[in-house]
Amino acid sequence: MLYKRGGVWWYEFVFKGERIRESTKVSNRRVAGQIESARKTELAKGEVGIQDRVPAPTLREFAPRFQKAVQMQCAERPQTVEFYEAKLKTLLADETLASLRIDAIDEAAVEEYVQLRGKVKSRRKMALAPGSINRELATLRRLLRLAYEWKEISRVPRIRLLRGERNREFVLTPTQEPVYLAACPNLLADIAVTLLDTGLRLGEALSLEWPQVHLEPAEGAKFGHITVLSGKAKSRKSRNVPLSERVVAVLTKWKPTETGYVFHGEGGNALSASHLDQQHSRVRALLKWPSDFVLHSLRHTFGTRLGEAGADAFTIMRLMGHSTVTVSQRYVHPSPESVELAYERLTALNLKRVPTNSPTVDQRGVGVVQ
User: Fold this and answer.
1) Which end of the chain is less crowded, N or C, counting CB atoms within 10 A of the terminal residue's CB?
2) Alpha-carbon distances, residue 210 vs 195, 206, 259, 264, 336 (angstroms)
């Protein structure tokens, strides 16, 4: 029942034997009726355990939770944490996107963001590259997937990465390698040799501790090795990587101890990846080499050389710590000579396996029917 008191409408009804009498705080009877109906609906939902869903937070409001989750999940990979924090900051710089509730970030909103980012000019007056936009989209996708896991949203929009992303394919040639190493400061040269001969990621090398280093070969092995622990490997799987003679020499120079970082600064503190990147950039500029040559190129060089040496994709995957063999296949580029060598080995193996009662086999491994 609606009635007016003091210029505003009140409603009164009985629910489960209890008299409900409340002000609608409005002077319009039609609106007051709607408020009364909404109140009855609210009581009815509560009776059967139905609660109205709390509005989803905006992207800006949800961002600190995402940032904290990344810090916890990637605690052993500070570079990954820095990456997500930087990309999250870029996402939040877009006022329209940052103000949207995360359940309202759909395919259309993502496309609008992509269109706007595609018009942005970089410092060199060039349009923002697809790769740069893709890193932001990947961050947004991870954020929304976490929101879905935490039941903040009911679905994750499909976020398609842009095509045309240019992958860095720089490989240090045998001729370039001594030139580069000679131009490097001692610290950078030591780490560069380690990356070249082990294929470690820079973060894995900087977090390497002495208990992970085994300079002497294990029984029955030819090489010493280092163990990349699962918490410090991108694939979350531990792996052993053999040590070349020159890496053993580098590690020995750093005076092995029972504990602590292998590569360290004053007081045994961990080295900064950004500091090494800056040193590398100065060397690259001095040599006037292309900007595609980054420190990660040394790992790419290791993988390429493995492929050239005849390693199969599964061996490369194991040594480099890839999560799937698909990534490792990029480093396998069989030459005509290596294909013929592989077939020559196959025919030799087949000769050894031929039963004594089989047709005659000629020198080429081809069966001859008698």
Assistant:
1) C
2) 17, 12, 6, 11, 43
Task: Give the C-alpha distances (Å, rounded to integers) separating 49 from 38, 39, 333.
Answer: 16, 15, 63
Q: ∠ CA(282), CA(228), CA(202), 5° rounding?
A: 10
C-alpha span between 87 and 90 (Å, rounded): 5
Instruction: Judge contact between 261 and 213, C-beta under 8 A.
Output: no
Here the tokens at position 57 are: 């937070």
Model confidence, pTM = 0.57
Phi and psi torsions of 22, nearest 5°: -145, 155
At residue 339 the predicted structure's pLDDT band, cuts being 50, 70 and 90, is confident
CATH number for 176-331: choose from 3.40.640.10, 3.30.420.40, 1.10.443.10, 3.30.565.10: 1.10.443.10
Q: What confidence tier does 367 reach under pLDDT thresholds 50, 70, 90?
A: very low
Give the pair of three-digit tokens for residue 232: 């410090």
Q: What whole-number distance in Å separates Cα of residue 171 and Cα of residue 292?
A: 9
Q: What is the DSSP string of 323-367?
A: SSHHHHGGG----HHHHHHHHHHHHHHHHHH--TTSPEE-TTS-E
